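S.,

Sequence below, as promised.
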Amino acid sequence: MKLTILGGGGFRVPLVYGALLGDHADGRVTRVALHDVDAGRLRAIARVLAERAAGVPDAPEVTATTDLDEALRGADFVFSAIRVGGLEGRADDERIALAEGVLGQETVGAGGIAFGLRTVPVAVDIARRVARLAPDAWVINFTNPAGLVTEAMSRHLGDRVIGICDSPVGLGRRIARVLGARPAEAWVDYVGLNHLGWVRGLRIAGRDELPRLLADPALLGSFEEGRLFGADWLRSLGAIPNEYLHYYYFNREAVHAYREAERTRGAFLRDQQAGFYAGVADPAVPALELWDRTRAEREATYMAENREAAGAGEREAEDLSGGYENVALALMRAIARDERATLILNVRNRGTLAALDGDAVVEVPCLVDAHGAHPVAVDPLPGHATGLVCAVKAVEREVLDAARSGSRATAVKAFALHPLVDSVNVARRLVDGYTAVHPGLAYLR
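The prediction came back faster than expected:
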């Protein structure tokens, strides 16, 4: 079975390959094709994978190419993890937004819109190529903004594109751990959009244990989201929000923390990864060892500004390991081997959330089998969550329309309608700023 990884020179690709190395069952991935527009990054990651596979019998064969069509031909699964504009583009997204006093995070607010506007045209081209060159392939999308990009691709691939994210998985795992349960034995009632969802219940042996967690201040203060949001706010919500909702509920504090930071997250990762790729270019440097050290630093500093603003302290050791690669592998196994699984995924709504139309991509629990991912019916969201979900989905639709039409006015509308952008004039300046520095936005007119 062939897996094609788009963005194959990306820093987190070794996590995916490492997960594949432990899979020796029938129907496993035997070939991995890496594709990237940067040949140097491809060579660097190929070195890391070769060192990781050393001594592992029947390790999947790895090839690397800058030819997209070559990478896609014959693929059974396509894992899309591209970054249009690179980390330099992310750093620019953050800098331009913060200069206007609004959030520039890569998936939330102005930064997420800018990233989406750059990425959607490329993702649509990929979807069309997959439909032509590998029509039976399943596309697993991790490209951010994951829900928005998955929806763009679904217009050409239907249900054969599925978005994944490790945030809901990590949240459910932390809650189960605090409640003394094994994550595999818990049913997580989670619903929303990508990076905009809430855990509303966690059932263990048929019993919802979330009320017990919400009633216990000590338990609430013992895991990351409890410290990030505060026990009082979580009890007011009656739910545990995805960590990214900190940008909405504590927006002023988050923006202040990001403006006060020495470097934005994107600038930090840009500089850190530049050092990594330069180091791996030296054949004398142990590639896997350098990658491991760089990854540990990356994970430890994740959302550091938010944790500092909330006084939440350092990340726990259990949360420093990867997550999305395990979701991707579980999804591939369920489809390829018809091994039924329950996973939180980004899929077309199909009536799951009554407030949204059937084609809107939502993030909900799904039953997965050989025929794909099937969203599980969920209870309606409370009014405050419904309003936020509908507002952000409306913005995503404007981004999709702007990417399709090339309309600058529609792009302005997307920024202006976002809950975290509080001025039409700011929206206009953001579009001016982003189009001035991003070649990938030259299509807006």
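Residues 217 and 232 are 9 Å apart (CA to CA).

Coffee later?
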